[in-house]
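QA checklist item 7 of 12: single-chain prediction sanity check.
[x] sequence parsed
[x] length recorded as 73
[x] structure emitted
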Amino acid sequence: MELDFNVLWKVSAVVFAAGGLWNELRAIRKDLSRLESKQDKYNHLQERVAKLEDSCANAHKRISEMHYRRRDD
């Protein structure tokens, strides 16, 4: 009888540990998904900033050209 009770405790401990591990893995997967979405937003922001920098450089170039043309007149 004592052996059966010990086996029952060990089996229940393994089951509970497996359940806890399963919940932790689900939480990690959820956190990774959230971090991936944040990373996607950040990458999109970098693309937008790069386009903005190009546009700004072009605008400065046009302004400089207008300024030099105006000086020549």
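[x] summary fact logged: The chain has one helix and no strands.
[ ] second reviewer sign-off
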